[in-house]
Each structure stands twice: as C-alpha cells, then as structure tokens.
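comment on this one:
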Amino acid sequence: MRSAIDTNISPGAFAPFQAGALAGVSGNRIGQWARYELIKPTLFRGRPANLYGFHDVAEAIVVHWLLDRGFSYADIHSAIERARIDHPDWPLLTAPLGIAQHAVAGDPRGAIVLEVAQGTYVDTRGGGDQVTLKPELLEAARDMLRRGGWIAAQLGLKRIEVDPDKLGGTPVVRGRRWPIERVAQLANDEAGRAVLTHDYALHRLDIDESLRWVGAAAKL
C-alpha cells in the first residue's frame, strides 16, 4: 500500500498520488488530467513523475467538482482555455468562472460561464450566449483543499487542515503540526493511541478522523 505522504518529496510539492489523495482521485487520474491539460504541474513536469503545487491540487479539486456535476473533459477544457486568455496562471482559481444552471435551455448541467463584464457572463463553450443571472461560483471547491481536501469533505471530517505554510502542505491535525498519516500509524495499537492522547494531548476525534482519511486515501 502506497503512503499518501512521501517524506522524500520537497516541502510544498505533491507527487501524483499525494495530489490525487487530496483531490479525491488516484494518482493515475491526476496524470490523465495533466495530459489533457485540465491541470498543470507547475513545480515539475516530466519524468519520473510530475510534481504539483498547492494551487495545482486546488485546481484538481475544481476539476473533480465539475466532473461530478456532469461536465465533460471537453467542457472543462473549453472553460480553461477561454479563461486562460486573461488569467494564465491557475485559471480555475483566479478567473471569474462559475456555473449558470439555466444558461443553456434544455441542458440540465447548465454551463460553465466566464464573467466578461460586471454581472454579465458568457458560455465558455462558445456561441456568444450571454447570461445575466449570478452563477454558482466555485469558492466552495477552491476552499476545500485547506479543510483537508476532497476526502475530508466527503466524510464530513472537521479536524484536518492543509496549509502550504505548515509542513509544506502535508495534511495535519487542525491547529497542530501532527501529520495525519503519522497519527494513523501510531494509532494502529493501543500503546500508540495512549502516547497520542496522554503525551501529546490529541483528542480522540483527531485520531479517528486521521484514521478515516488515511484509510480512504489508501482505497483510491
């Protein structure tokens, strides 16, 4: 079983399987998204493996979020290319993109739209359609990474955080500098749990959530 944390990776740099765990997909899927240019590994692109920065992983979460809502790779790619004109770095995070549920008649997905003037959006798939309704913006997906990524959101975990300024973005117990994978390793037996709770004052929920996150990551 491959660890979601690799101490040989430079701080703030995520290997594909690490980026995938935070985005809720496998490392192979992250590589697929990179090849299709839905995300870009801005720290290192090439062999033996791409390395992804914090914002790259945040964009991967947005991609996952959009795919879950029925948008195709082509839809997302079109939105990225349209947004990249004025927002070349991390367009899924920096461009005023959103989802307008009623932008396209008869399409239950709605459309990924880009704000071109205050309150006026265009369908990124082309055609020149303009809508003035306020779309569902992507802040929730953008912020998910800091709260422990996709896994934490899906499992309703509240005690995990990812901060690029804390241990290089390694998922940790919120408010502490304890990597959750280390917590999970120690918690595999009663003696380890006792050390965590009595010597380091970790709450039982800190331990339980760490175990759940690491267990879910191992299944991706």
Remarks:
- The beta strands are 97-100, 111-117, 120-123, 130-131, 136-137, 160-161, 172-173.
- The chain has two domains: 16-143, 148-218.
- Residues 1-11 have pLDDT under 50 and may be disordered.
- The first strand starts at residue 97 and ends at 100.
